[in-house]
Design a protein that fits this description.
- Strand 3 and strand 4 form a beta hairpin.
- This protein has one helix spanning 13-31, and strands spanning 3-8, 39-44, 51-52, 55-56.
- The radius of gyration is 14 Å and the shape is elongated.
- By secondary structure, it is an alpha+beta fold.
- Helices cover 32% and strands 27% of the residues.
- It has one helix and four strands; from the N terminus they run βαβββ.
- The termini are far apart.
Length: 60
């Protein structure tokens, strides 16, 4: 059973639904797995707890 972890900033529930559907479809299509075996964990990190290129995302 594949478990996919996505780390990202907060997104709307609609975008998360689309994301998990597409990730699941990719595993079903590529690995020929039943959709029921694919698990997706979304770990949302606030903008003040994530940085890139030496700057907090909240400061961009």
């Amino acid at each position: 059973m594949p478990i996919v972890t996505v780390q990202q900033g907060p997104r709307s529930i609609e975008l998360k639904r689309e994301l998990v559907a597409r990730i699941t479809d990719a595993f079903v299509d590529t690995l020929q797995l039943p959709a029921e075996t694919v698990q997706v964990w979304i770990h949302e990190v606030p903008a003040d707890s994530w940085a890139a290129a030496g700057k907090l995302t909240a400061d961009r």
